[in-house]
Input
Amino acid sequence: MYVFHFSPALRLCFMGAICLRPLSAGKDKLSVSSAKPPFDYLCLSMSIQPPYTLVETQDALLKLVSLLDPCTEIALDTEADSMHHFKVRLCLIQITAVGQNFIVDPLAGLDLDPLWKSPGMRNLILHGSDYDLRMLNSFFGFVPERVFDTMIAAKFLGQERIGLASLVENQFGEVLSKANQKADWTIRPLPIDMKQYAILDTYFLADIKKKLLEQLEAEGKLAWVEETCAHLILQAKTAPFMEIDEEAWRIRGSNKLHPDELVFLKAIFYWREKEAERLDRPPFKVLNPDSMVDLAIECAYINPDIRPERLPRLPRNFTGERLNSFMDVLLDAAQVPEEEWPTREKRNRDRAPSPDSNRLERYREIRDHIAAEYRIDPTLLANRNALVALAMPGTPAEKRQNARCLDWQWNLLAPALGLI
Output
């Protein structure tokens, strides 16, 4: 049985009538069906419907790993769910390698260790890799040795539209659908249009990298991209994916509240977290931040006469046990002694030293001039925090460390700023 693969350069106009699809679950071969794909499936592109293999059994995963082991480079992407459930879950792993496309289903109960240990996974092509890298390290302890991020590469080439769909359209003239960007990737069985949408995230990456590499080498920027991508790997190892923040209850708008209101806001926040976990829903779908702030303000105003009919309008599903538990939390918060009320957030920025404004402005102008010369976004060379650190008093070594400058950034900035 042949496994078909069509490069982006060869468009399949007849694919509107022929759909390539996997055989039964776990098979790593493809069959041809004359069934007409659903409408959403066709909406992705009339000319691009690449075949893929759905990997949802351990045997199929091991076959995939044996195929990937000798690979020198693999295009990879992931789909996670943070919009429809309480906890973030890795829902799909898309892989394109050796002219074939694969969709691995982590929700099928697979042992993914063989995949992460595959030598072929050491060198990856990704687009917008920061989230993927931190998530994979946090969930599985996996970090590749090398990454080529096509979004980063596009930034260094001065491209204004750096999304994957924009790069595909610019390089291949194909328009990709964005219909499933906010889809629930935990759905099983996964609809065919969602699977086709997912595999297009890796299908073009190797060809995009090839074109970007040519331009980067011609402009002498390849080393800059490689260093920046290496820094992303380092960040994935050191920066937590989901850091526990004990001050997370200080949501947007809380800085205007007084302590007698903050005590209610904090109680409402942690009730919402528990309720969201119980329902397996994102917290914002239980109670949105604006409503939480309004409730906190009103509770402090009407305290101690806190009754449902006196509160701002609650969601319609606040009935029965849910309403009772919510009211219990409010009444408990009303009993907290004043000396235990949360204090207003202190703004350390008022005490922080600031650089000389004239020096900072001069540094900004120099940065912008260098960025324009090399046709890159100024913030790629040095964002505002980096500029502030460079403009502060101190030795050049201290300035560089505080600004977290990479070699390529320092080599461009330091001579122009008079730091070496």
Q: What stands out?
A: Residues 259-279 form the longest helix (21 residues).
